[in-house]
Design brief:
The protein is mostly helical. The chain contains 22 helices and six strands. It has two domains: 375 residues, Hydantoin permease (Orthogonal Bundle); 91 residues, no CATH class. The protein starts with a helix and ends in an 11-residue tail after the last helix.
Length: 590
């Protein structure tokens, strides 16, 4: 059976499984739709959280960024995993004990204000749509290559699949679908990693293979060889970083703190029966997440080695099949600068921007691009987001492994997209309609509004997937920065202080979100040509600026709170009750 047929079978069966689960677990009430009825087992919830958490950025893009950035790419590993531990220990149990459906629910009640709830919903929508843009781009990339369709059509197909199980099943359907998606994505990530690690080092465990000798007789370790090969081609050493210390610190901190403010991850802790289950499910999720995150650095290093071995100094006429496959999907390109027909992979850009192809072919049969060629020696353009997906093809693994990776990439992107869409729909139907503008709405009407909001959100998400503002992991990093600058301070101060009032919380969220969004928009949307370290505030890139936004949020919130009316006594009692362990409550707290 050929590889393409296997891909159709694997992807088709996985889609049938997801839709079947959604139909089987269809939400019948708002409690089912928002928090799966609040009765999910901690181990099941841990697996669903891991799938929700490990998006296309983790599965598709993170190892690609590590492959091409080396040491600098470690900020994503440190920030995301560290942030999850912080969320699990610092916020999740308290939010679960509070016992509402959504993050804006907590903020609205804690800050005794409709305005605070509305501001929280606006922050949530900004964060979620920025995040979902990365997921839909991941869906488009997988579809375009493996199902031989246009990226735009791929995104539309993905929208249709998410529509069925997110809009019908709600959180109940999404939870059990995400358990299946976790199993698919982790198996799809680890199987080729085991194969490739064994082929390169003789050690089948990727994390150990990364520290082993390359079995080519050179006696060099994997990272030693990578450093040597890359430096010979004009790149910096793989194990050296090019980012400034302050930028590395800020990106890591923004990813870490942003994790603790991500609404689609926080809402997962509302789906378990009690606060102790929230801690247990967080622990299980960390184990499930660690399986992928401990493997990603090895996947990135092996991918870069294999890429160099199969592309550099290879005549285009003899280019491997995987190269021309991805070239047909506009995600890789060869620009023959010197006319010798041989692909020279060097430091620098081969073309300006992503490839825009012409109809005619070059003398060696290569697809010609009309993009300008900047000064330099590099003749090969490669989109970083393809490396994990292309890895099995580059290593010439069996067709069923390639098909498995296609299904895994889609599972990673769709699982997170569904969680984000649910958060957006709950923000609109529950927080804006039910709790703010239409408190008399029936449960049936609220459920209908939630499904309509999810449907509209899918359309917006699809548009962002077709016209994304950057690489998957890069776009997702912006969402974390926005979360760090807006929701995290309000949640943190809401749990751990009794004196933070509504005026302070609202002023902090607006100022933090506004500053961070404007900074990212200036350097990524309005004037991308100025996005260089010399123009950044304190040398901090747009990916790390959420830390400054967070500091602004805290400073504004605390200042305004000190200058305005104190928190009401009943709210102070609420905060005290959230923080007291079960069994230790005293009568005056009720």
């Amino acid at each position: 059976m050929d590889t393409q047929t296997l891909i159709y079978i694997f992807v088709g069966l996985s889609f049938a499984l997801y839709i079947g689960i959604a139909i089987w677990s269809r939400a019948a009430s708002t409690s089912d739709f928002y928090v799966a009825g609040g009765g999910v087992n901690p181990v099941v919830n841990g697996m669903a959280t891991a799938a929700d958490w490990m998006s296309a950025a983790s599965f598709i893009s993170m190892a690609g960024i590590i492959a091409f950035s080396g040491y600098d790419g470690s900020v994503y590993l440190m920030g995301w995993t560290g942030g999850y531990v912080m969320l699990a220990l610092l916020l999740a149990p308290y939010l679960r004990k509070f016992g509402e459906f959504t993050v804006p629910d907590f903020i609205g009640a804690r800050y005794y204000s409709r305005a605070a709830r509305v501001v929280a919903v606006i922050c949530l929508i900004f964060i979620s749509f920025t995040y979902i843009a990365g997921q839909m781009r991941g869906v488009g990339i997988v579809f375009s290559r493996f199902l031989d369709v246009d990226v735009t059509l791929g995104v539309i197909i993905g929208m249709g699949i998410v529509f069925v199980y997110a809009v019908m099943g709600g959180m109940k359907g999404i939870t059990y679908t995400q358990v299946a998606q976790y199993c698919v994505l982790i198996f799809a990530y680890l199987v080729p990693a085991f194969f490739i690690s064994f082929m390169i080092t003789g050690n089948p465990v990727p994390a150990l293979g990364l520290g082993s000798e390359v079995n080519d007789g050179s006696g060099m370790y994997v990272l030693q060889k990578l450093d040597l090969v890359l430096q010979d081609m004009g790149f910096g050493a793989y194990t050296d970083g090019s980012k400034s210390t302050i930028d590395v610190f800020c990106i890591t901190a923004a990813l870490m703190i942003g994790t603790a403010g991500l609404p689609h991850v926080i809402v997962r802790f509302f789906t378990v029966p009690k606060a102790s289950d929230a801690r247990r499910s967080a622990g299980w999720a960390l184990i499930f997440i660690a399986l992928l995150y401990s493997t990603a650095p090895a996947v990135g290093a092996f991918a870069r080695l294999n890429f160099i071995d199969t592309v550099n100094e290879t005549p285009y006429a003899e280019a491997p099949e995987w190269f021309t496959n991805w070239e047909d999907n506009d995600l890789i390109a060869f620009r023959d600068r010197n006319g010798d027909g041989v692909m020279q992979y060097r430091s620098g850009d081969a073309i300006v921007g992503a490839p825009v192809y012409l109809e005619e072919r070059g003398p060696s049969g290569e697809r010609l691009t009309k993009n300008a060629t900047p000064p330099g020696e590099n003749e090969v353009y490669v989109d970083r987001d393809i490396m994990v997906l292309a890895n099995p093809e580059i290593a010439q693994l069996p067709g069923w492994v390639i098909a498995l990776v296609a299904a895994g990439g889609l599972a990673a992107a769709l699982s997170t997209a569904a969680g984000l869409l649910l958060v957006i729909s709950a923000g609109v139907s529950h927080d804006l309609l039910k709790r703010t503008f239409r408190p008399d709405i029936s449960e049936k009407g609220e459920l209908l509004a939630a499904r309509i909001a999810a449907s509209v959100a899918i359309l917006v998400a699809g548009y962002l997937g077709i016209y994304p503002p950057g690489w998957v992991a890069e776009v997702v990093a912006f969402a974390f920065g926005l979360a760090a600058a807006s929701l995290f301070p309000a949640i943190f101060l809401g749990i751990f202080t009794k004196w933070m009032n509504r005026e302070g919380a609202i002023a902090g969220m607006v100022s933090g979100l506004g500053f961070t969004f404007l900074y990212i928009a200036i350097f990524k949307l309005w004037a991308p040509e100025s996005n260089v370290a010399a123009n950044w505030l304190f040398g901090i890139s747009p990916e790390g600026i959420g830390v400054i936004g967070m500091v602004i949020n805290f400073a504004v919130a605390i200042t305004v709170a000190k200058l305005t009316a104190p928190t009401p006594p009943d709210v102070r009692r609420l905060v005290a009750s959230i923080r007291v362990p079960k069994g230790a409550e005293t009568p005056h707290m009720h």
